[in-house]
Amino acid sequence: MSNKHYKRIVLKLSGEAMAGDDKIGINPITVKKIAEEIKEAYETGVQISVIVGGGNIWRGKAASELGMERASADYMGMLATVMNALALQNALESCGVQTRAMTSISMQAVAEPYIRRRAVRHLEKGRIVIFGGGTGNPYFSTDTTAALRAAEVNADAILMAKNGVDGIYDSDPNLNPNAKKFDKLTFLDVVQKDLKVMDSTAATLCMENDIELILFNMNQEGNIKRAIEGQKIGTTVKG
Ligand code: UDP
What is the ipTM metric for this complex? Predict the structure, then answer.
């Protein structure tokens, strides 16, 4: 119960994180590793909720570009996030952590329906809450879900764990060896410089609700805990 910098955080994992080297689908060994990292961070005493993306299974926009109706494709994407949420819930519980999965699209045999006050109560009781189903609306992303839920449950920060990227750069570091990494930014910078950190809806929501974002590399072991302890890793976006 030491070194905790925040009281309550939202951890955003991309769907890709669940796939491991396979790049698509869910790799149970990878999910177990993520669960162990989350457990280690949880043991600092911080209240954690998790939003998982669905890009390892399905992306609505990509399917719509191939001719599918966007709304239907997006609902499929939201269902994909529920599969990831269940996989993570299972892995966390097998590490001995109490969790609740909540979905914004009602499917009561599978998870609790998302009710804000109930989610807050779970957090207060020390359960890790996993939010599946995105916002429940097509045309949105799980980044926007993270911003929305962070505002709703009054989280101190969003910890955005990325695969293989250790912060926000002025250009793609994989393509440009001279790309410059930022330590600190504002959400206005993110939108105006079109920095591809998150979509502009999510960035605006964070800006308007004074939510802090820390973007860091998930592939380095122990980073979730480091971010929670307020250690200088990745890029911080604030204001
Ligand atoms: N999605 C949606 N509304 C939401 C959240 C997600 O329609 O509120 C759909 C959308 O089709 C998206 C897919 O779910 O492509 C998976 O989410 P996302 O792309 O954000 O996952 P990530 O890139 O983080 O893996």
Answer: 0.97
